[in-house]
Amino acid sequence: MIRLILCGLSVLLLGCHKSAKHSDPPEEIVGTSVRSNQTISGYPHSIDYYIPDNAESAVIFLHGGGGKKERFAANLGIKNDTTSSNYDLLPAGKDWLINKKIMAVFPQGQTIAGTAFAFTWNNYVMDSGENDVAFLQALVASIQSDTTLPTITKFYLVGHSNGGMMVNRMWCESPGTFDGFGALAGPPSTQLAATGAHPCAPATIKPYIGVVGDSDTGLQTSGNMNALTWTLSSYNGASPAWVTSTVMNDKEYHATRISLACGGSAGAPTTSGQVTTYSDCSDTLKLIVITQTMINGSLSGGDHCLTETAGSSCVTTLAGETGLDYKSVLMDFLQN
Questions:
Q1: 150 and 55 Cβ atoms separated by less than 8 Å
Q2: Which of 53, 150, 287, 305 could form a cystine bridge with 278, CB 3.0-4.6 A?
Q3: Is 182:336 a contact under the CB 8 Å cutoff?
């Protein structure tokens, strides 16, 4: 009888014949905040910051020519819509920032007076009227010195179209500012060629990943994947915002990067469905080529926005039904 009573008491306290269990620690809740339309001293660019409390890396995302920072953030699946009336995060975008420990930064490109729709970057293809090399250097410095932000230890620069062309200029001229670079449909200007007006001569070689489609109507890659250069279909030589109509062939320039980084030539690529991947110099240089194909009766992938189907988000999905997420592919490469 006494033993039963003792056992009953032990069930209440610990469970009879069982050792006490420690409860699992509560799941950490990571907060996020947004700072929209900020500026830094000396520059007119407005800047949006999407900040998880656990951020360790900062990624500066550069929109394409004529683009807006809000639309690029929405097309990447980070912001909830393309408007400038609110800056709420999509739930999936919030989770992505937290899981990757990334602070996403979206600056607004500028435009020369008289070219109201040519919001862009000073990248030797277009001219924004601003010193965007100095601006991006100052933006990184401002983040490093801002004690109200999480402690950021790595900085990456990523861009689409004209934004990617600016990424290429920075890779050539200011590699020490960032830890890695990524461009989607944004190859370098021919002015960065060895015989160009501004030959690419990086003081140090940083990791780089490029993505391009084989049927890009903006870059006119269709049928020209082995040409040395591509000609922009939207080039307007009369506009002061345009500098040159030609860019380097991303596939051909990959070999130039290899020569600069480690010598030799490109290794054999791997192909999976629509995606062909070149990875060289101990996986520090990568090029992904997206092939256009027919899916359910519609052309899919390979164009300037590498969309899944007509009308889908510009750069969220790399190609067709591969399920690849642009920002994840780039950041998985750059962070690793």
A1: yes
A2: 287
A3: no
Task: Give the DSSP letter of residue 130.
Answer: S
Asked whether the CA dihedral 168, 171, 172, 177 is positive or negative, the reply is positive
Cα–Cα distance for residue pair 133/123, rounded to 1 Å: 9
User: What element of type H or E holds 100?
Assistant: helix 91-100
- What order of strands is seen across the sheet that includes strand 275-280? 32-38, 47-52, 102-107, 57-62, 154-160, 180-184, 208-213, 285-290, 275-280, 270-272
How many angstroms separate the CA atoms of 80 and 312, rounded?
15
How far is 48 from 195, CA to CA, in rounded Å? 37
Q: Which residues contact 1 (CB under 8 A, 6 or more apart)?
A: none
Q: What is d(CA 114, CA 242) in angstroms, rounded to the nearest whole number?
A: 13
Identify any residues that bridge with 49 across adjacent strands, giving them in sequence order: 35, 105
Residue keyed to tokens 């960032």: 178
Q: Is the dihedral of CA 321, 327, 331, 334 positive or negative?
A: positive
How many CB atoms lie under 10 A from the CB of residue 32? 17
- At residue 148, what is the residue type? T
CA distance 152 to 131: 24
Instruction: Say what the pTM is.
Output: 0.90
CB burial of 55-79 (b: ≥16 within 10 Å; e: otherwise) equals bebbbbbbbbbbbbbbbbbbbbbbb
What are the per-10-residue average pLDDT scores of the chain (336 residues)? Answer: 41 39 57 97 98 98 94 92 93 96 98 87 97 98 97 97 97 98 97 96 97 93 95 86 94 94 92 93 95 82 73 60 80 93
